[in-house]
Input
Amino acid sequence: MNKIFAIGRAEYLQAVRSKAFLVGVFLMPVMMAGSILVQVALKDQVDLELRRCAVVDPTGELMEVLERAVVERNEAIFETDEETGERKQIRPEFALERFVPTEGERADIVLSKRVEDGELTGFLILSSGILDPDAVPTEDALVYHTDEPTFTELPNWLESVVNSEVRRRRFEAAKLDPTLVARLNRAVPMRTFGLAHLRKDGTVAEAEEENKARTFGVPAGALFLLFILVMTSAPQLMNQVLEEKMQRISEVLVSAVTPFQLMLGKLLGSVGVCSTLALLYLGGVFWSTHHYGVASFVPLSTYGWFLLMMLFALLMYGSLFSALGSACSELRDAQSMMMPAMLVLMIPMFAWSAVLEAPNGSVATALTFFPTATPMILLIRLLAPPGPPLVEVLGGVAMCIVTTLALVWASGKIFRVGVLAQGQAPSYRKLIGWILSK
Output
């Protein structure tokens, strides 16, 4: 046991004293803060290039509506600086032109060529019966063509203006006052609350209004933080073991300790490094939530569950990746062996949104008892209201313990053979043989 702790201590100190670790400690907060600052800085950096659009209007009436609307819109895209009094354009200007195809001419072909030549941003084609109040709208009643589909401001504006006019004419044909219809059609907003409880002393604990940042943000944030910590640790074990094996360092180490002790020591050092990072980040979360008065969003039990699930995940995936690294003799072999292991690690990331949407549903329950996905899936369910039933919590923790012990044992068997094996191309079939060997 002393040898295991000695190896773990050496691995831990070597990692935390490296420049890469110090960079990693500050990298995540800097990247997050940097992304926020970039978004803020680019918020007002809008492409103000004039956007031209041709309109094919067989009704002969909607074009006039669009022309009046575009004048009003182009006046509203300026704001006045309170200090200097200068007018500043904040959105791109739109320009509309009527296009009437000649006999036998296809409007979409002609206008598509103009879009390709850069004369137009896009063009709108209206159907002749779009204003008929009794007609059922067809799929080609309102069609917009462009080679810039990511620029949605122009088509959204066109759709809004055309539909407003179509609705107005429908109301007019039905002899209904649009203002009255809008007033009668006002929606009633709904607020979401938790549950009220009767305390033991007879008083009532009133239900609290649900907060989306708490309901969705905390479970998702915890999952992504756990995933990042595992991804920055477990695959590195594979590279370290492979590098030591290629440089014949492992042969020297196993002359002083057993392969299983060497693997456990490396696992212990990796857990220590990740725990240090986790404590730093969780400490920042704890300070921030208390500083801004939202500590109730992240109760103390959240920190405990996070650290426990992180421990299980690190031991599971750390032992798996270290075993794969010991079985390989070349980097090329390690890359091919790594892909299936990464797919197993990614299962919770593929399913997290479905689990968060229905934390006590059949999918969430099934994934809770999928061995290698248990730590991350159970963490989401624990942090998402109302939480899983107690029997599933105990079953999930038991699954984590059993899976961790099984993977550490199996990885130890692989590590014992693989760390000294040279020149052999590994395969999962061969690894299973090593596990079953005595």
